[in-house]
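Researcher: Next sequence.
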Amino acid sequence: MKKILFKSVSAFILLALLVSMSSVQASDKDEKQQSKTIVLAHNQPTEHPVHKSLTIFKKKLEKESKGQLKVKIYPNGQLGSEREAIEMTQTNAIQMTKVSAGALESFSPSYSLFNMPYLFESQENYRHVMREPKVQDAFFNSTKDNGFLGVTFYDAGVRNIYTKDKEIKNSDDLDGLKTRVQPGKTSVALIKSLGGTPTPMDYGEVYTALQSGVIDAAENNETSLTTNNHGEVAKNYHYTEHAIVPDILIMNKETYDELSTQQQKWLKDAAAYSTEKHEKLWDEEVKQAKKKAKNEMGVKFHQVDKSSFKDASKDLRQSFAENPKTKSDYELIEKEEKNMNKAKLIIDKLLLTLAGLALIVMVILSIYQVAARFIFNAPSTMSEEIVRFLLIWFALLSASYVFGVKKHIAILFVRELLPSKVQLVMEKIGDIVIILIALVLMIWGGYEVVHLTWNQIAPSTGMSMAAMYSALPVSGVFVIFYSIYNLLDKNELATVKEGEEGAAQHDNYCRFSTFYHILFLLVIWFADCISDYFKFHYYFAIDFTI
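Model: Next structure:
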């Protein structure tokens, strides 16, 4: 009986093990089936901002999908030219590629619109409009019948004209200049409309063509001077700012349709995240390229009479606006650009200008104070008092500006522990809390401080101390404006740099750290109203501004 029982139990255990092993094998098989590798090709080197941004996309997608979606990147044109990469994406030989919007105009007339001269008023307008879902849908979905669709865009800079030796001041100076353009009908029409003689040519041939005199000029962003060494043979760079042509990340439609709804969301979110990161990478790359071209290559940078180029290209712009194939997209872009909050742009410039002027005056007066005290032995108390007044205004106006353009420092380690939906709610709650803080502490509290110090007169200048402290309620108004703008801005995206431990420069979420400084500075101010003992509040104002 015992033997029978033992054999029965042994058989049961063996059966359980077999079932367990088969389940594990099935589970492994299912997991392997769920895991999908996306091949992504592009023609830029690994040090280029585009490759770095695509790497961010890869890491973000693999992290969010927990390995369900993996990306294999082939840079440097390893899998072929831009045109070949598009064709391979069409046939699903590869699943994704990054190409210039100009290369897509033969697949969709919509993309030819980016070669319209002065389509966007500024780079800021361009970035705002291109983030709009309506605009993205109009362009990205226009190539579905060709077997691929757009996923996101990457900033490829503002295109300007650079010449071998001739300096350009207006459109008349382009007359007769053989200017390299991208192969394409609209690219040729663009340079012709500006007054130049277009010469279609592959990008890799530009250096030699400039060097040998086959062409006199080319048009591209500042990075072309350094990454491809065009600055060695072209010594004048002119800010015509005639076009902004984005790079587009495209994907095979069949592959995209095979993804689940959740996988499509992961992919789109990762792409949008990489686009936001790319803007910072790109801006820094342009800054460094300009510095290198100027200091190491001897390139001179010139401003031009842009109105002459706009006038010269008026007919071409009108043809885009009236062409049935591009009219609706043009009107959409024009509408979204008009919808931009012009008030914010004006206030941004106002705050930056006022803070800049305050800083300039402070520097001049500080130099004067040093000279007066140590050279002429006649220290000036008046200039010291004026610097003190300006420092407070500079601190708060600068703080309002960096808050408005989202360049302040934020503490992130708590936020990173929260789900993305909770982070979004926290963002909106944060803006509401900031509005309340600004109303109560900055405007109402600032008014009380101004009222309290109204009759206190600065001994050297004879000015009321209220003139200095009125900066508090004034900056409070600006902070409330920015907070309301953020609440209503549907384009805000979470962009936190991955891999940082504790703190990072952060653009949208968790703005509370800014107000820790404000509260701390308020304490100093209120104390200063009571006693002159707290003269060291200058240092906190400087810390707050930084």
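Model: The CA atoms of residues 373 and 379 lie 4 Å apart. The radius of gyration is 30 Å.
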